[in-house]
Amino acid sequence: MSEKESWSRKLPQGYQDILKSIDDFFQQTHERLVDHPLFTPTIPIRFSRGTSELKIEAELPGVDRKQITIDVYNQGIHIKVQENEIKDVTNDHNQIRRRSETHRIRERFIPLGFHPTESEIHARYKNGLLIITVPLRTERIDIQ
Questions:
Q1: For residue 77, what are the contacts with CB-CB under 8 A and spacing of at least 6?
Q2: What positions does the domain SHSP occupy (predicted)?
Q3: What pTM value is reported for the model?
Q4: Which of 13, 25, 102, 144 has the fewest CB atoms found within 10 Å of its own CB?
């Protein structure tokens, strides 16, 4: 018997129950936090800038094209990925059926500093890589 077990068994049953419920609370909280949206990774993005365009590459492995939406705002682009997963587990021996559904949304806003129109922006998705091309609008100002 370890020191922890001997210490906790010396307590009255009511205290043991309280300690067990505290342990269970923190264990369940930890399991839920792993899938909490606050702790999910954002969409990884790489930028490359040419002379006339900005290329944005978003890594989205395992995502279907239908799960991706791209919105254009006044001075930026919003990428949104909606992932839905449904698991059905049936145990014929015990006649137990368990169904769990997971809905997860990942988003990323990319500020541009200028207002692009939808017709100017081109996006393509292949093999888990979303590539968005935006023409640059730069004007050089002469200094007098």
A1: 56, 70, 71, 109, 110, 112, 116, 121, 132, 134
A2: 36-144
A3: 0.63
A4: 144
